[in-house]
What we know:
Blueprint: H1 3-33, H2 41-50, H3 63-72, H4 80-93, H5 100-107, H6 118-123, H7 125-146, H8 151-179, H9 189-201, H10 205-212, H11 218-226, H12 235-253, H13 258-272, H14 275-281, H15 283-304
Helix pairs in contact: 1-2, 1-3, 1-4, 1-7, 1-8, 1-9, 2-8, 5-7, 8-12, 8-15, 12-13, 13-15
Amino acid sequence: MLSRVAQNMFWLGRYIERAEATARMISMGQRMAMLPGTHGQSEWTSLIQATGAEPPDGRVVTEADIVAQLILDQANPSAIQACLAMARENGRAVRSALTQEMWECLNEDWRYLESMDTQSARRQLVHILEWVRNRAAMFRGAVETAMLRTEGYYFLRLGGSIERADMTLRLLNVKYFLLLPETEVVGGGRDHHQWMSMLHAVSGLRAYHHHYGGDYAPWNITDFLLLDQTFPRSVAFSYSQIDACLEELEKNYGGAHNCQRTARRELDQLSHLDINAIFENGLHEFIDQQIITTARISKEVSDAYHF
């Protein structure tokens, strides 16, 4: 496969996943901001920080800032509108490699957000976030049910899996940033609802309950999102998908690359880690290191396949 095609498929997978993950993070921020005893300031600030963007200087971060910066900002690569536009551009560049259903998912209503300003987007915020998640689900359905299992498929899934691991880590960092100014609420009712909001954000409440019943302890939820090998949005599961895609690409191209060795080493580490040890050594430090490692794998994939 030409490196240009590999690059476009890889980033198409990343941008679709990033758009959905940003929508999920905003939904989580909404839930947290509506909890009793909060005015939303720390919740929205933590959301901005976790995406890697800078909060507005000298004033309280509001829902309007979130809509403008994380939904409508075409210059912000984490904003939903920018992600969908870039996904469509990547898809258009490799149109012949996509199925008709995949292209229709990318192309239909792709200008939907362009007609909105911040005020109108806020009025329709719940609908917009649901729309983004539905479009991403439709695209994945089109991929899984009709796309040939060739190199293009594995580059697409590889990009999506790398992005999913990164965004799950960033979602956990929302909680970390949120607790910095008010550690006295740890273990309280508000803290409990914030952790529950994280499970809602990843559509993992029922799956979590299957594993842990009604015990919503923070370390159990973190264990579920980081180390669980069966939940599709956990970091460990995402790494298993990264490893599987790289193994398939190795079969087609021959020879392992640094990206494969790094992914396999991290997957092995995650399978042997204990969540109590992670908390003892510092959850935030662990998450930051994993974000760096995930970015390193992405860079090594680019180097290995020349894009």
